[in-house]
Write a structure and sequence with these properties.
This protein is of the alpha+beta class and 327 residues long. It has helices at 26-34, 76-79, 86-105, 130-141, 196-212, 222-229, 240-252, 256-259, 276-279, 284-289, 300-309, 314-325; strands spanning 5-9, 15-22, 56-59, 64-70, 108-109, 118-120, 148-150, 157-158, 170-171, 193-194. The strands form 4 sheets. Strands 1-2-4-3 form a 4-stranded antiparallel β-sheet. Strands 5-8 form a two-stranded antiparallel ribbon. Strand 1 and strand 2 (15-22) form a beta hairpin.
Amino acid sequence: MKNSLSCGQDDMQRTVVIKLVDHGTDEHDIYSRLSRCEALYNSDPRNFAGVLPPTAILSSPHGFSFVVMPMWTTSYRICMEDFDTIREIFTFIRCTLKGLSFLHDMRIAHRDIDDTNIAANWYCHDMKHREHRLSRILEHCRSPDAVYALFDFDLSLQLPPETSLKHCRRPAEEAWIGKLYYHPRDVTQGEWEYNPFALDVACLGNIFLFSFAEAVAVVPLLAPLFGRMTFPSIDSRFTAEEALTFFREIEADLGPDVLDSKVVLKDSEAVLDDPDLYWARLSPEFQRHWQSHRPMPPSRTTRLLRWAMGVPGAYKVIAYVRKVFHI
């Protein structure tokens, strides 16, 4: 359904966004399930589940429903380079990992994890004074009230509750939907199937890497976290719950002095394809100890397959051969 978003106010004069969602779709089923999850409506930021909750679902007799959600902002993304403490970075990582773990626990594969589909709990209608608006966004993101949430489920899948997060497989063609900037190379070697849950984890890990690689020098254990979230082998990659557990262990061992440490961030696309760029900042002893969490360079076979995939017509041939022989 095109142009299906609109804005409005609820009976408490709060700004909301209204989305038209077709009946009988996974998206509609997902919003219906989320509307029944009490964890999404907890007023304590420490217990927020990290998914933008619908505040109402108004069914119509025309084959669609009006899904009403809080008006949050994605403009925080402009300010992420201005995050200047580990605490601000950890708030973002914690919220988004909680959100992804929450969705996967419900066997919802998001399939479009991107920074444009992560919102902060702040909104300002002032569109004329950009600098003022951005300064207020940054002020909020630095406050203890800031939380972040995953949203937008128009490409998401609702899978059966017995689906394995580790061993779920779907046709590889599905891995090319959505925004591809943070996608890992899970299907760029002619694979005929993929794991949508593992893809979600790697996409979120790549967002962390792109934005927060500089923080590894202050908190070295972020390197094995980012590494296992973006591991080339999907069977060895962290699940969202495993990544959240690992992150919580990191956070629990940090004192206020580290959390309030200053860090200068710089977006880096290069680290997405070269883990050495952030691992090299760590001591040789640390690197050896966490070698199992460090993504290895692609093998000669993998490099050859990636090269061959660039040959016109080769994708279908390679994918067919790999499917027939299950390789």
